């Protein structure tokens, strides 16, 4: 590979607290050779390819901590190839894939399969997540040690929660000893079963069973109580309400160590967007009140929420063209993750640095992976974007195999121009 | 000279009747006044008209129903339509066909009206997006039952002369009731004051946002009410423990002559049926022709549905 030098770039890399005009040089091995305002063109080899970024922004490739790839079992919804195309078009170079495939990823041979298959078909860094309990049934823990050794970065039951407190205590106890990451979906099943949207006026008007925000809060409170005794690496996948945020705040003030994420959907939409039974906005956790959305944005600003995820859940049309209660839950979002997050910059809710931080170095730190940074010597996974160029989301133009976007026809500002993986150009807008 | 387009005096009739929430006050009043004519017709010797002659009406019932289904059936026939009733409980759905596919199949037969009852809220809305004919909601999940609210309104108007200014209590299982929701919207729209009365566990959260006052004490909730609408305790929709027992429910929320005294002197009782006698209503009270409008509701139901079918049929 030839060396590359990016000139006239605005470099934003929260891992080095860097936001400056300068250049980036990638060496022949696809690593960052030098970066910053002091980099001189002469540092690059004479044969280096020069890429003039014309003052566009260069950031570390995004790390998406929650995405579903249909393989194995749901290839008709998404496969490794389509997922990586969608990811790269969105500037995402590292993906944590969810284990709720068919069969479920809860044993070593499945991990082998997914890693080999991913290596052959995907053009993106894959970090598989394993099931927290066998068959995701919430009763028996999976082989945390063996699975981690095979390359599993975290453990989650994705859409379900371990309801039994004793089981959860044992899981956390065991995990605290061997240092694995628990990624909890916080939802009390008994409180939320049959529910499909936020409990309140809208659920009342639409005649749908609601999910109380208490369902989330109770599990977070329970787990954080357990965490005092069993201090494992604990992460809450997605929170959705102000109530949950209050619990997180209280516990973080008390010095407890854990992390929390939020879906870009819960930061950009609220329950009113569901309108007349739009099933593409049936999400888990559900969209809640505008007040909750505002609180979540505040939570990011205050550092109570560490990560923004796409919660990319591809669903085919047949699973969505049903009465609301029967329709599948989830929306795609990996390709629109950054542009939609930039909306929070353009409407002056969050700083650009904060947004990039939650999409790059923060998830990398939680996962303990060497990504999300452009420090000298790290892999040259890079996203280049234009901050201002406007565009309209059209489902049919998105690269995902399924087209269930929650933001069809939304006007966005900010476009991914190029994505590099280990220094190689893997997506180019032009 | 510029051509001045005349605005048509008669507004194009709306396409579907999906719920009271989507209905304008003008449309509601039009249905009600039209229905008044059909009351007289239904009481006369010759009940048959031919306004819908040559039209096809399909009643698509995914949930069992006696009175709504027979009422729509009769309404269509009295207007001269060809009526086909399909009970979907044990056919296509069990074979795995989706609602959309069923809709497409029926649509290919060129119906002019589809009357649908479905256990899922929003199913009529989904159906209406996929067919060319008018869709009338005969009850969906716990969302809406617009023709029930319209027939209730007609019954009240028939007795009290008006709805504006009346105080109406809706009592019982508000949480699971589409009848309650449709009535809240319609009675509010027509100018009544609405109280809802239910035990806490059967009262939806933020119900006040729909423009009602909520009570858990039946006596307080009935205070000064002109109409008392009792709802059926929907055992089939209740999963988990909502109430300690039917006996306790009757004690606090069952309508008895004693509790009725708290309402206004000439208060009238309504019930959408079917009744659980001795659970939500005292059996004698239900049959007391001086205060109970229950039979009249059934009678006027046919008239209201005739008006709806006529108005929405293209």
Mean pLDDT of chain A: 96
Please summarize the sheet with the most strands of chain B: 5 strands, parallel
Which band does the percent of strand residues of chain B land in? 5-15%
**How large is the count of helical segments of chain A?**
14
Rg of chain B, nearest Å: 20 Å
What is the helix/strand order of chain B? HEHEHEHEHEHEEHEHHEHH
Q: Which structural class should the secondary elements of chain B be placed in?
A: alpha/beta
**Shape call of chain B:** globular
Ends of chain B: how far apart? 36 Å
Question: Could you state the oligomeric state of the chains shown?
Answer: heterodimer
Q: What's the total helix number of chain B?
A: 11
Parts with pLDDT < 50 across at least 5 consecutive residues of chain B: 7-11
Task: Describe the structure using short key phrases.
heterodimer, A: 430 residues, alpha/beta, eight-stranded mixed beta sheet, four-stranded parallel beta sheet, 23% strand, globular, B: 314 residues, five-stranded parallel beta sheet, 14% strand
Task: Report what the structure shows.
The complex is a heterodimer of chains A (about 425) and B (about 325). Chain A is an alpha/beta fold and about 425 residues long. Chain A contains 14 helices and 18 strands. The model of chain A has no long low-confidence stretch (mean pLDDT about 95). Chain B has about 325 residues and is of the alpha/beta class. In chain B, about 35% of the residues lie in helices and about 15% in strands. A five-stranded parallel sheet of chain B has the order 7-6-5-8-9. A four-stranded parallel sheet of chain B has the order 2-1-3-4. In chain B, helix 1 crosses helix 11 (about 295-310). Chain B starts with about 25 loop residues before the first helix and ends with a helix. Classes of the chains: A alpha/beta (about 425), B alpha/beta (about 325). The interface between A and B is medium-sized, with 22 and 26 residues.
């Amino acid at each position: 590979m030839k060396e590359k030098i990016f000139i006239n770039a605005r470099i934003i890399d929260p891992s080095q607290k860097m936001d400056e005009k300068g250049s980036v040089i990638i060496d022949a091995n696809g690593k960052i050779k030098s970066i910053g305002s002091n980099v001189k063109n002469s540092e690059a080899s004479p044969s280096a390819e020069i890429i003039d970024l014309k003052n566009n922004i260069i950031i570390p490739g995004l790390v998406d901590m929650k995405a579903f790839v249909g393989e194995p079992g749901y290839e008709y919804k998404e496969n490794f190839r389509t997922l990586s195309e969608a990811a790269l078009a969105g500037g995402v170079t590292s993906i944590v894939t969810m284990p709720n495939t068919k069969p479920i990823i809860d044993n070593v041979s499945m991990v082998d399969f997914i890693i080999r298959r991913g290596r052959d078909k995907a053009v993106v860094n894959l970090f598989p997540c394993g099931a927290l309990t066998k068959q995701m049934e919430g009763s028996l823990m999976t082989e945390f040690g063996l699975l981690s050794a095979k390359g599993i970065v975290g453990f989650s039951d994705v859409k379900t929660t371990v309801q039994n407190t004793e089981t959860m205590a044992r899981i956390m106890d065991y995990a605290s000893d061997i240092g694995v990451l628990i990624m909890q979906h916080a939802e009390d099943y008994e409180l939320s079963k049959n529910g499909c949207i936020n409990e309140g006026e809208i659920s009342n008007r639409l005649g749908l069973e609601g999910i109380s925000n208490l369902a989330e809060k109770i599990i977070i409170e329970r787990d954080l109580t357990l965490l005092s005794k069993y201090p494992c690496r604990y992460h809450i996948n997605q929170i959705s309400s102000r109530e949950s945020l209050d619990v997180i705040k209280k516990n973080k003030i008390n010095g407890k160590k854990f992390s929390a994420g939020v879906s870009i959907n819960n930061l950009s939409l609220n329950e009113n967007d569901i309108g007349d039974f739009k099933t593409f906005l049936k999400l888990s956790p559900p969209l809640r009140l505008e007040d909750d959305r505002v609180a979540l944005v505040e939570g990011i600003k205050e550092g109570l929420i560490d990560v923004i995820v796409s919660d990319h859940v591809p669903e085919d049309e047949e699973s969505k063209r049903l009465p609301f209660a029967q329709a599948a839950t989830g929306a795609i979002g990996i390709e629109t993750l950054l542009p939609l997050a930039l909306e929070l910059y353009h409407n002056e809710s969050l700083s650009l640095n904060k947004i990039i931080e939650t999409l790059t170095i923060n998830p990398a730190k939680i996962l303990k992976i060497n990504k999300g940074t452009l420090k000298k010597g790290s892999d040259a996974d890079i996203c280049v974007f234009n901050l201002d160029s406007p565009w309209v989301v059209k489902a049919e133009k998105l690269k995902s195999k399924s087209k269930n976007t929650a933001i069809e026809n939304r006007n966005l500002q900010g476009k991914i121009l190029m994505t590099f993986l280990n220094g190689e150009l893997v997506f180019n807008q032009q | 000279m510029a051509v001045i387009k005349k605005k048509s005096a008669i507004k194009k009739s709306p396409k579907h009747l999906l719920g009271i929430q989507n209905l304008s006050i003008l449309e509601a009043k039009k249905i009600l006044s039209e229905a008044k004519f059909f009351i007289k017709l239904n009481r006369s010797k010759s009940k048959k008209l031919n306004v819908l002659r040559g039209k096809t009406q399909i009643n698509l019932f995914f949930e069992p129903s006696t009175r709504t289904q027979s009422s729509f059936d009769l309404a269509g026939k009295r207007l001269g339509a060809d009526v086909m009733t399909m009970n979907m409980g044990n056919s296509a759905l069990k074979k795995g066909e989706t609602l959309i596919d069923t809709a497409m199949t029926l649509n290919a037969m060129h119906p002019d009206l589809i009357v649908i009852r479905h256990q899922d809220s929003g199913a009529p809305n989904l159906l209406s997006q996929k067919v060319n004919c008018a869709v009338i909601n005969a009850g969906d999940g716990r969302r809406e039952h617009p023709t029930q609210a319209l027939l209730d309104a007609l019954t009240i108007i028939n007795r009290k002369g008006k709805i504006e200014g009346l105080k109406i209590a809706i009592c019982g299982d508000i949480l699971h009731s589409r009848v309650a929701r449709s009535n809240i919207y319609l009675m509010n729209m027509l100018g009544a004051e609405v109280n809802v009365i239910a035990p806490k566990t059967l009262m939806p959260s933020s119900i006040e946002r729909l423009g009602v006052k909520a009570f858990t004490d039946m006596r307080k909730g009935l205070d000064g009410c002109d109409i008392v609408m009792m709802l059926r305790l929907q055992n089939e929709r209740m999963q988990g423990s909502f109430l300690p027992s039917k006996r306790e429910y009757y004690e606090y929320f069952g309508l008895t002559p004693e509790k009725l005294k708290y309402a206004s002197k000439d208060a009238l009782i309504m019930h959408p049926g079917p009744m659980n006698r001795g659970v939500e209503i005292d059996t004698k009270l239900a049959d007391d022709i001086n205060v109970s409008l229950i039979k009249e509701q059934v009678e006027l139901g046919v008239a209201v549905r005739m008006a709806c079918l006529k108005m929405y049929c293209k």
